[in-house]
Amino acid sequence: MTRGEEAALHAFVEGRRPALFRSAYLLCGNRDEAEDLVQTTLVKVVLGARRHGRLESLEAYARKTLVNTFISGRRRFWRRERAYGEVPDVAGRPVDSDTGLMVRAALAGLAPKQRAVLVLRYWEDLSVAATAQVLGMRESTVKSHTARGLAALRAAVREEYA
């Protein structure tokens, strides 16, 4: 890579880190895990850009890498155990009844692919076709995951307000 390409890659990493972190946090629901996910994603993006030369769309490559890294991390056996910085005082329900906290808690209860579809569709504001392309699935599968994920979120919100 030339110095100009390296500088552009560095600028991309610095500029996209906050947006990738927000998406990663919505996927993971945990700040530390989201930071690890973003770091892993950016390392893969930089290595991929250096290995393949100039990638066509660095933004799409980064988004796809983020989601794929998240999903593959959820498949691992050791990921079933969760580490916490502080032990919560109360188990189960969040103490704060803020809607954002409730939605994030409900989002964390979804299957990883449903969560990825909802984050890409409604947080990243991607179309069904773009989401299908990022995740490597058919549009009908994206629509199915969207419908089931939204139904599960609605049920969790109704349960919270009941």
TrEMBL record:
GO terms for molecular function: DNA binding; sigma factor activity. Residues 13-79 form the RNA polymerase sigma-70 region domain. SUPFAM superfamilies: Sigma2 domain of RNA polymerase sigma factors, Sigma3 and sigma4 domains of RNA polymerase sigma factors. The keyword Transcription applies. GO terms for biological process: DNA-templated transcription initiation. Gene3D superfamilies: 1.10.1740.10, Winged helix-like DNA-binding domain superfamily/Winged helix DNA-binding domain. The keyword DNA-binding applies. Signal peptide: none annotated. This is Sigma-70 family RNA polymerase sigma factor. It comes from Streptomyces triticiradicis. The lineage of its organism: Bacteria, Bacillati, Actinomycetota, Actinomycetes, Kitasatosporales.
